Structures are given as structure tokens and as C-alpha cells.
């Protein structure tokens, strides 16, 4: 093969305020403080203002996007622990049915059903998945893929909890504003809590379990207990999303266990960049409005989702967020060689 | 008596679904979760060749099998090549490709009562006092032949052994001269062609619809997992267990519980013994 | 290199976003009357229903449009695919599609409506919230009336222009009576789809058969996603059933059932609603074995032209001229066609598009359409009985030598029910 000489190379420089490590910064002016604060504050401010600006249909899309964002965050939390889940629909559906059942049969209001659904959903998911915690990678993923399908068929066959017709005319939130700000608020809070927790000691142990579980075991830490806790937390977050949607749409049916709810968090995380919670959040904020805008295309919409998922996994494994982060924190220049 | 016959037919249908999937996933270690989509795609290709290009049935069938093989080949080079070695990424990418194929089929208008492949031969025989039509006998014949051929191929031919070698340890296989990309794409092509064979033989017994793709994938997965991923006898035993399990559930419990059998089987086997009935127990790779 | 690839992707994604935002959606002008069609377009019922609606709208527009107050306005159809014909579509998704249609296109009324019973029931609250009159023409679930009665004032915007499971079963019971009277058949095996409407259908049929002395060989519901009916067919054969009562709407299972029944040579008549066996092409796709099976078409005019009801012949002729073939499914298409005319008539009566006035005008509907004379009762459903001059009607037909011959009720019959040769003792 002929030798092709490189004429240009890419030169990357960190910005001046970085002091040696990725997480330490030396700040000397307001401008630099703003440089660090803005990427964190801007999304929060935007998300808090958007419910006021977007009314009607797109306001509902925002809520939908926040719920899917929560599912994606919960997926990422599990992935940070080494548990690759293809069944976010399980958490979503469990939370939805707990809230729906309490609302339908006992006539409880959302204020009562939501906390019970969150805790109940988390507990149930942890219980259901703890027998399979010992399985590695693909096997665990397959169990999580099958469980929601199983639940869906069970409800269809036994006809319990509303069967194929579902439970309808459930109690709504007292006020549309309450609903929207609850969704946005929960999304922001969970995002920041997860980001903080993962860099604290607790989160570091979880990440260590993902990287090398035998090493963690040999440090006398019970990894199964930690994993169960991670399942509980992720399950609770997913259950919140499910319970919220139940009350928002005043309906719960067996399709809460549908594959759609498992694929979208996966696509959002793949697009946004797994590992950093901001990535899945960003991914869901892109994908959900995109898919709503593309409704006119009908069935092609799902094909497009899958296409984006495939392209993200193959060509862009690091995700959009990492790319943006890198561009933000570094100068890049093409420099002539020689 | 009828339970026996229809149970057997059910089981062989399951074995046909699983044959192609096992070849790629179990024997070669490549996840091809677009299997179900390829199954129904070859059915639609055969229908198009038969009704729109107006080729004779025999030719359309053969051509659709060959085309499926090529599509499988293309999937390897286009998709799997870049994510080889990361099992979860393979799973996700091929699954997404499968869903995309199914949705595109529906978008193109391939749904409706007119999408049906004709039977090979009309008529049937009576066994005992159970009527069995020729198509089902054909299914049994094809299934048996296919599984036997598969076993011989995987254990006694150079290429079959190359598949297995690649799944066991890729580095060693490379150092022995097995070029993993070429062998991998061949495996995927053969798996898809087998899906095409199964489709041609089974689809005339009903209507064609994209939703079948998801079903076939779940059944194939169930058979592969219950039987154990790398073993061919596993496919046979697992399909018989699941097939008779379904028919027995319908007879003794109630027909509506039939659809739950494969799902419960997968979960049960994964919890208790992930390597399946005939798989080699790989403790280190499965459990922590 | 990777950056460039990624940049292209990013530009593509944002380009798609920008494109869809900048493309003008249907502007909410005061001129045309906007009729929304939120349904599952990928099912035969949705697709053919939409074609029927488009045909009706074209006909009305060709005559100048609908008189609203003092001006004639044209009708414009806007469609959204709720995808609820596919079993795994989340109901929330379908409702979002419906809501998007209502909020963005601002229809003055919707017709056809979602396909699945689940989605229809859930959409009732949505319609009540946005006050957009809805004329359903697909879903057959009796739960609609039940829910309507819980709060008629809230749900007054909802109307059903088609039959429901109980009515369809009533017609079939009549046909079974004829079979019993003419041929002395009395052993029946039930295979319903495990969804509420089909179970309701077979339930009514079962009660009737018990009363009239039929012997029940078996009753076996199958899950909607079933693909193997051999256990049930075997039991029917062993129990020497003479009639298999089968109700199914998902094309997948119905197709497999038809072919399996033919393959297993079960010596029993198939009676009920199995769309692939009722379709005009059934002779070709299912095979000649479909001969002698008895299907109910609800309401009339959906797919079978009836000589005694010239309006059905007219409708199907025009449909064939425009689209090249008659509707595939022997159900609900004529209701879709009629619903547009009912809506137009109500708008003219109300003199405007105000929802409450429109609802009052709809309640006074008295229209002679393809499916009979259509009037709503106090539960906002069309009354179906046995006199096309008074109510809507359905028909039961039997395949005889490759033709669909109506056999019941008597005033619509063009032939007598016949027993297949392999059943004559």
C-alpha cells in the first residue's frame, strides 16, 4: 500500500480553567464561573419555563418527554451498576397498575396513590428481578425483555385488573399545572440526584460492580444487596413515571407493558450517551419531540427510531452528550504537520 | 392420538423456526434478533414473486430463500461487523433492524387478507382417524431433514466446524486460519436462508402478517434457550417439550394459556439453568 | 473523521426537525368543515372505512358541499393513524395521536374512531374533555353504552353509527334457528376470541342456543394472539359438533383458523364472523373449503350487494368503480359511509358547527342510508332490528359455489341455507 502522508492533524487543548483533573477547575472571574454554571443552569431554567410557553399539545409532549426521560435515567442507573435492562416497561407497568388499581378499586386520589405506587413499584421490581441478579449480561437482558411480555399476556389471559379493557375513568391530577410541574420537577430532581450519587462513594461502589464485580466481592462488599438496592431505586423511578402517566391519561391497560416503553429509553440512552445521566436525558428530549413531530409519517416513525438507534450504537457509541461535552471543554484545531 | 399428531406437528414447526436462529446464535455465537423479521420478509418476497412478477411457485420459493440468504449476508457486513464482540450491542442492533423491517413492510401496505401463499398440494390423508393434510406432512418431512442436515453440517463439515470454532474462541480460530468475518457472514446467510425455508413451508398454512415476525422470534429464542445454545439435539428436545407443552396446556387447562408457555419456559430456564438442557454449563460466563 | 460523520448526523436530525416544524400543518381556516379520522389505518376495517369516508366526502363536495347557515362549505378530511390495530401499541400512544389531531387540526367532528375497544373506551374521556363530536363506526363493544349511561351529559358528544356485539349475535341466532329447523342440527362448539366484544357476542349466542335446545359440545376462548387452533378443532371433531361458532377480528388468527379448519377436515359448519372467510377473495385465498360457511355481515352494504336493498348495490358499485374492488371486510364500511352523510345532515339542521347544537341535531337524525334507516336511541347508538324501513339491518350470508348468498333474514334472503354434501347423513 502506498504511504499516504498526513498533512494535517487535530490538536486538542483543554481550556485554561481546567486544573489538571477533569473535575477540578480554577476559576478567576465571573465569566469563568458562568462558563461552568451555564450548562447546568440553562436546561433547568428552560425546563422550568417551557410549561408556561408550551400549552396544548406540545405541553403534553413535554410531559411525555419528561416521563420517558425518567425511564431513560432509570435505565442508565441500572447500566451504571452493570445491569443491562431491556425491560423498562416492567417498572413502568408495575407502577401504572399499582396506581391504577388503588385509584379504581379504592378511589384514592393521586396524592395517596403516587407514593404507594413509587414504593410498591420499586419493591415489586426488586423482588421480581432479584432471583436473576446472578446472571450476567445477555441473560439478564433477556429475562428483562420477557417479563413485561409475560405480564401483558397474563393480564390478557386472566382478565384481572381490567383485563383487555383496562381500568378507565381514574382520578386525574387536581390541576394541569400541578401535573406539568410535577413531571418537569421530578425529571430535574432525579437527574441531579443521580448525577450526584454516582460520583459519591455509594455510586462509586456501583460503578465498580459494573467494572469488576469479583474485585468488589473480594473487598467484602455484598454485591447482590447493592444490586438489589439499585433495582429498587431504578424501579421506583420507573414506577413514578408509570403512575404519573396513569393519572395524567386517567387510564391503565395491559399495553403499559408494551415494547415501546423498553425500546425508547434504550434509544435515548444510546443516542445521548450511556453512563452520564445527562446523556439519556438529552436523548429523550430529542427523540420524543422528534417522534411526535413525525407522526404524519405513520409507521415509518418506528422504522426511523430503529434507524437512529442502530446508527447511534454503531457509529456514535459515545453519544451526543459526550461529543458536546468534549467540544465545550476543549479547543480543537487542525494544525499543519511538518 | 390426535394430541400426539398435532403435538408433533407443533413441535416440528417450532424446530423449523429455531433452526436458523440456533445456527447463528447458538452455534456461531452471533446474535441475529432480526430472525423473525427475515422469516416473514421471505414470505412476502415469495408472494411478490408469485403474484407480481408471476413466476412459477417453485421458482419463487427457491428465489426467496436465496434472497433471504443474501439479506442475511448484508446484515452481517452492514450492521454486525462493527459491533462484533459486544453481545448486547449485537442484540440491540439486530433487534432494531428486525423491528424496522417489520414496520417498513406494514408501511408499504403488506397487510390484508390477500397475502397468503398457496398450499403446495391440496388434500390430505387420514392417520388413525385424524385428518392430516399434505402440507403438514411436508412440514414434518422438511423439519426432520433439515435438523438432520444441520447436525451433520455442524459436526462433520469443515465450514460447520469453523462456525463452532469461531464461537468457542475467536483468537484460536483466527490462528488456525478461520477468517472470522467471512465465516460469520456465511453463518448469518445460512441462518437467514433457513428462516426462508421454514417460511415457505409453514406460511401456506395461514395468512401472512408482520406480527408473525415477533412471534417467531420469541419461539425461536425459547427453543434455543431451553435446549441449550450450542447443541443441535437441544433444538429437537426443546421444540418437543414446548410443542407438546402448548398442546397439552390447551387440552387440559384452557386454550387461552397456550401463549404463555414459551415465555414462562424462557424465564424458568434462565433462572434455574441458563445454559439450557443440553448446553455446557458455563458457570464463569453466566453467573457472578 | 468520526466528527464529520457525526456532524452530518446531527445536521440531518435537526434538518428533519426544522422541516417538520416549518411545513405548514393544515391551517385552521374558517372555510372548510374539518372531519377527523383517527383510526388504525393498517387494518382492513380502518383502510376500507377511510376509503368509504373519502368517497362520501367527494360526493358531497361535488354537489357543492354542506350548507352551514347561509353558505355552502366543503368538507376536508384529516387522518391520523392511531395504530391501535396492532396489539402492542400502547393506548397512551393512540390517545396522543388522537389528541394531536384534535389540538392541531381542530376538526369539527370525527368519524370512524379507534379500532380497539380499549382505546375507544379510553378516548371517551378525551372526547368529553375537548367536546368534539365523535361518530364511531368500528368498535363493537357493548361497554360503550354501559359507560355512556354512567354520565350521559358528559359523554353526549359520542355516537355510535354501527352495530354492537349483541346485535350481531342476535342475527346469527336467527340463522342458527333456521339451521335447526331445516336440517335438525343441534350440536355446537364455541371458539371465541378472548376479547370482550367477541366474548359478549358468543355469550348472547350461547344463551340463545341453550334456550332453543342446542347441545354445547365445548366452549373454548383463545387468546387474541393465538396461532394454533388444532386443540379446539380436534375437540370439536371428537365431540361430533355440527356447527362451530367462531368470532374473531384479528386477521392473523382468523386466517390460520380458516386454513386449519379446511386442513383438518372437521365435519362441521363454520358459523360466525371470521373476516378472511367472509372477504370477497376468500374463495381464492382460503380455498374452496370456505364453501358452505355462514358469516354475519354487519351492517348491510359493507361488502355484499343485496338485490333487495338497492342502496347497497349502488354503494358497492361506486366503491368498485372508484377503488377497483369491493371492500375486503364484511363489516362496518357502510357505517363509515353513512356517518359522513349523517354528519352533513346534522350540520345543516343545526345551522352551524357549535358542538352542543351539533349534538342536539345529531340526536334528531333520521337518515335512510346504505345500512338501513338510522336513528339514535337515548344511549346514542343506532337502533338495529329487522325492518330496513324502520331501523338499520344486518344480514347473514352463506358461501354457495363461490358466491355469497344472503340467507337470513327472510326479507333479504336470495337463497336457502344449504348443507354441504359431507354433512348429509
| Average predicted confidence as pLDDT of chain C | 83
Strand composition percent of chain B = under 5%
Tell me the strand order in the biggest sheet of chain C. Answer: 9-8-10-11-12-15-16
Largest sheet of chain B: 2 strands, antiparallel
Topology of chain C as a string of helices (H) and strands (E): HEHEEEHEHEHEHEHEHEHEHHEHHHEEEE
Low-pLDDT residue intervals, each spanning 5 or more residues of chain C: 22-30
Count of extended strands of chain C: 16
Structural class label of chain C: alpha/beta
Features:
B: mainly alpha, 2 strands, C: 425 residues, alpha/beta, 5-stranded parallel β-sheet, 14 helices
Description:
The complex is a heterotrimer of chains A (338), B (288) and C (425). Chain A contains 13 helices and four strands. By secondary structure, chain A is mainly alpha-helical. The two termini of chain A are 22 Å apart. Chain B is mainly alpha-helical and 288 residues long. Chain B has twelve helices and two strands. Chain B has helices spanning 2-27, 35-51, 57-78, 87-107, 134-156, 158-168, 170-176, 180-202, 211-227, 232-253, 260-272, 283-286, and strands at residues 124-127, 130-133. In chain B, strands 1-2 form a two-stranded antiparallel sheet. Chain B is globular and about 55 Å long. The mean pLDDT of chain B is 85. Helices cover 43% and strands 17% of the residues of chain C. In chain C, helix 3 packs parallel to helix 4 (117-130). Chain C starts with a helix and ends in a 17-residue tail after the last strand. The interface between A and C is large, with 41 and 45 residues.
Quick description:
The complex is a heterotrimer of chains A (about 350), B (about 290) and C (about 425). With about 350 residues, chain A is mainly α.
How would you summarize the topology of this molecule?
The complex is a heterotrimer of chains A (338), B (288) and C (425).
Chain A: E1 8-14, H1 30-53, H2 57-80, H3 88-105, H4 110-129, H5 137-158, E2 167-168, H6 176-199, H7 201-211, H8 213-218, H9 223-249, E3 251-252, H10 260-272, H11 278-293, H12 300-315, H13 319-329, E4 330-336
Antiparallel strand pairs in A: 1-4, 2-3
Chain B: H1 2-27, H2 35-51, H3 57-78, H4 87-107, E1 124-127, E2 130-133, H5 134-156, H6 158-168, H7 170-176, H8 180-202, H9 211-227, H10 232-253, H11 260-272, H12 283-286
Antiparallel strand pairs in B: 1-2
Chain C: H1 2-22, E1 33-39, H2 44-62, E2 66-68, E3 71-73, E4 75-81, H3 91-105, E5 109-112, H4 117-130, E6 134-136, H5 143-150, E7 158-160, H6 165-183, E8 187-192, H7 196-211, E9 215-219, H8 230-238, E10 243-247, H9 251-264, E11 269-273, H10 275-278, H11 282-285, E12 294-297, H12 310-323, H13 333-350, H14 355-363, E13 367-369, E14 372-374, E15 395-400, E16 403-408
Parallel strand pairs in C: 1-4, 1-5, 5-6, 6-7, 8-9, 8-10, 10-11, 11-12
Antiparallel strand pairs in C: 2-3, 12-15, 13-14, 15-16
Amino acid at each position: 500500500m502506498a504511504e499516504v502522508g498526513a498533512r494535517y492533524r487535530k490538536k486538542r487543548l483543554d481550556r485554561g480553567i481546567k486544573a489538571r483533573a477533569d473535575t477540578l477547575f480554577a476559576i478567576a472571574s465571573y465569566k469563568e464561573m458562568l462558563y461552568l454554571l451555564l450548562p447546568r443552569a440553562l436546561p433547568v431554567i428552560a425546563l422550568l419555563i417551557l410549561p408556561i410557553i408550551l400549552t396544548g399539545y406540545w405541553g403534553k409532549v413535554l410531559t411525555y418527554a419528561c416521563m420517558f426521560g425518567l425511564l431513560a435515567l432509570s435505565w442508565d442507573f441500572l447500566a451504571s451498576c452493570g445491569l443491562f435492562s431491556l425491560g423498562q416497561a416492567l417498572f413502568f407497568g408495575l407502577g401504572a397498575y399499582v396506581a391504577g388499581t388503588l385509584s379504581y378499586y379504592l378511589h384514592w386520589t393521586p396524592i395517596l396513590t403516587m407514593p404507594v405506587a413509587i414504593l410498591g413499584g420499586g419493591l415489586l421490581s426488586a423482588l421480581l428481578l432479584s432471583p436473576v441478579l446472578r446472571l450476567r449480561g445477555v441473560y439478564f437482558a433477556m429475562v428483562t425483555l420477557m417479563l413485561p411480555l409475560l405480564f401483558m399476556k397474563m393480564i390478557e389471559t386472566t382478565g384481572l385488573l381490567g383485563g383487555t379493557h383496562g381500568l378507565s375513568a381514574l382520578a386525574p391530577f387536581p390541576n394541569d399545572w400541578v401535573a406539568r410541574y410535577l413531571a418537569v420537577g421530578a425529571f430535574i430532581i432525579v437527574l441531579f440526584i443521580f448525577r450526584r450519587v454516582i460520583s459519591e462513594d455509594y455510586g462509586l461502589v456501583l460503578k465498580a460492580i459494573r467494572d469488576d464485580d469479583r474485585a468488589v466481592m473480594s473487598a467484602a462488599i455484598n454485591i447482590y444487596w447493592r444490586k438489589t438496592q439499585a433495582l429498587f431505586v431504578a424501579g421506583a423511578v420507573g414506577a413514578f413515571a408509570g403512575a404519573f402517566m396513569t393519572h395524567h391519561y386517567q387510564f391503565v391497560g395491559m399495553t403499559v407493558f408494551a415494547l415501546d416503553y423498553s425500546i425508547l429509553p434504550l434509544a435515548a440512552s444510546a443516542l445521548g450517551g450511556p453512563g452520564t445521566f445527562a446523556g439519556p436525558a438529552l436523548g429523550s428530549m430529542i427523540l420524543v419531540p422528534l417522534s411526535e413531530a413525525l407522526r404524519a409519517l405513520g409507521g415509518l416513525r418506528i422504522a426511523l427510531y430503529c434507524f437512529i438507534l442502530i446508527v447511534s450504537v454503531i457509529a456514535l457509541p459515545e453519544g451526543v452528550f459526550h461529543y458536546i461535552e468534549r467540544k465545550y471543554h476543549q479547543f480543537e484545531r487542525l494544525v499543519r504537520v511538518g | 392420538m390426535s394430541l400426539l399428531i398435532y403435538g408433533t406437528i407443533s413441535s416440528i414447526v417450532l424446530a423449523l423456526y429455531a433452526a436458523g436462529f440456533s445456527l447463528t446464535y447458538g452455534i456461531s455465537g452471533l446474535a441475529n434478533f432480526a430472525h423473525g423479521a427475515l422469516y416473514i420478509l421471505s414470505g412476502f418476497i415469495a408472494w411478490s414473486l408469485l403474484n407480481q412478477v408471476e413466476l412459477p411457485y417453485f421458482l419463487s420459493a427457491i428465489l426467496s430463500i436465496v434472497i433471504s440468504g443474501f439479506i442475511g449476508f448484508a446484515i452481517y457486513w452492514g450492521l454486525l461487523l462493527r459491533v462484533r464482540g459486544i453481545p448486547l450491542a449485537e442484540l440491540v442492533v439486530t433487534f432494531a433492524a428486525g423491528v424496522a423491517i417489520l414496520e417498513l413492510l406494514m408501511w408499504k401496505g403488506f397487510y390484508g387478507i390477500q397475502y397468503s401463499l398457496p398450499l403446495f398440494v391440496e388434500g390430505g390423508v387420514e392417520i388413525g382417524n385424524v385428518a392430516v393434510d399434505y402440507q403438514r406432512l411436508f412440514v414434518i418431512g422438511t423439519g426432520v431433514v433439515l435438523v438432520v442436515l444441520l447436525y451433520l453440517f455442524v459436526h462433520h463439515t469443515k465450514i460447520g466446524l469453523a462456525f463452532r470454532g469461531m464461537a468457542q474462541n475467536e483468537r484460536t480460530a483466527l490462528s488456525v486460519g478461520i477468517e472470522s468475518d467471512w465465516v460469520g457472514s456465511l453463518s448469518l446467510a445460512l441462518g437467514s436462508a433457513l428462516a426462508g425455508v421454514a417460511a415457505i413451508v409453514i406460511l401456506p398454512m395461514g395468512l401472512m402478517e408482520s406480527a408473525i415476525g415477533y412471534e417467531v422470534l420469541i419461539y425461536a429464542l425459547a427453543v434455543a434457550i431451553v435446549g441449550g445454545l450450542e447443541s443441535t439435539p437441544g433444538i429437537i428436545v426443546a421444540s418437543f417439550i414446548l410443542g407438546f407443552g402448548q398442546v397439552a396446556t390447551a387440552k387440559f387447562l384452557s386454550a387461552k394459556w397456550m401463549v404463555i408457555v414459551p415465555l414462562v419456559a424462557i424465564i424458568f430456564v434462565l433462572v434455574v439453568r441458563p445454559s439450557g438442557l443440553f448446553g455446557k454449563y458455563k458457570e464463569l460466563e453466566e453467573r457472578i | 473523521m468520526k466528527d464529520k460523520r457525526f456532524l452530518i448526523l446531527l445536521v440531518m436530525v435537526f434538518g428533519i426537525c426544522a422541516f417538520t416544524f416549518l411545513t405548514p400543518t393544515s391551517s385552521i381556516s374558517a372555510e372548510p368543515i374539518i372531519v377527523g379520522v383517527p383510526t388504525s389505518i393498517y387494518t382492513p376495517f380502518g383502510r376500507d372505512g377511510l376509503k368509504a369516508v373519502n368517497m362520501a366526502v367527494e360526493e358531497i363536495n361535488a354537489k357543492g358541499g354542506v350548507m352551514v347557515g347561509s353558505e355552502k362549505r366543503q368538507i376536508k378530511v384529516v387522518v391520523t393513524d392511531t395504530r391501535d390495530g396492532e396489539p402492542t401499541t400502547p393506548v397512551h400512544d393512540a390517545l396522543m395521536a388522537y389528541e394531536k389531531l384534535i389540538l392541531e387540526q381542530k376538526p369539527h367532528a370525527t368519524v370512524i374512531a379507534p379500532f380497539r375497544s380499549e382505546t375507544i373506551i379510553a378516548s371517551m374521556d378525551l372526547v368529553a374533555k375537548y367536546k368534539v363530536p365523535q361518530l364511531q363506526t368500528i368498535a363493537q363493544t357493548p361497554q360503550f353504552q354501559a359507560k355512556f349511561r354512567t354520565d350521559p351529559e358528559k359523554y353526549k358528544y359520542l355516537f355510535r353509527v354501527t352495530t354492537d356485539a349483541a346485535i350481531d349475535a342476535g342475527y346469527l341466532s336467527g340463522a342458527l334457528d333456521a339451521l335447526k329447523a331445516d336440517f335438525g342440527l343441534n350440536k355446537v362448539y364455541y371458539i371465541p376470541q378472548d376479547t370482550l366484544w367477541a366474548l359478549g357476542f358468543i355469550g348472547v349466542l350461547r344463551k340463545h342456543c341453550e334456550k332453543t335446545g342446542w347441545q354445547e359440545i365445548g366452549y373454548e376462548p383463545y387468546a387474541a394472539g393465538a396461532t394454533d387452533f388444532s386443540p379446539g378443532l380436534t375437540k370439536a371433531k371428537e365431540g361430533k359438533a355440527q356447527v362451530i361458532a367462531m368470532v374473531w377480528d384479528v386477521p392473523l388468527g382468523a386466517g390460520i383458523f380458516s386454513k386449519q379448519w379446511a386442513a383438518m377436515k372437521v365435519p362441521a359448519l363454520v358459523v360466525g364472523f371470521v373476516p378472511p372467510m367472509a372477504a370477497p377473495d376468500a374463495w381464492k385465498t382460503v380455498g374452496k373449503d370456505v364453501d358452505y360457511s355462514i358469516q354475519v355481515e354487519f351492517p348491510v352494504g359493507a361488502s355484499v350487494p343485496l338485490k333487495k336493498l338497492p342502496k347497497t348495490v349502488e354503494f358497492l358499485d361506486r366503491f368498485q368503480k372508484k377503488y377497483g374492488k369491493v371492500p375486503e371486510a364484511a363489516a362496518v364500511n357502510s357505517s363509515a359511509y353513512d356517518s359522513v352523510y349523517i354528519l352533513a345532515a346534522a350540520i345543516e339542521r343545526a345551522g352551524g358547527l357549535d358542538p352542543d347544537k351539533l349534538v342536539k341535531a345529531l340526536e334528531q337524525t333520521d337518515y335512510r342510508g346504505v345500512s338501513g334507516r338510522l336513528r339514535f336511541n337515548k344511549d346514542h347508538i343506532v337502533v338495529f332490528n329487522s325492518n330496513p324501513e324502520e331501523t338499520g339491518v344486518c344480514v347473514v350470508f352463506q358461501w354457495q359455489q363461490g358466491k355469497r348468498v344472503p340467507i337470513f333474514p327472510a326479507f333479504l334472503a336470495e337463497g336457502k341455507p344449504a348443507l354441504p354434501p359431507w354433512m348429509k347423513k
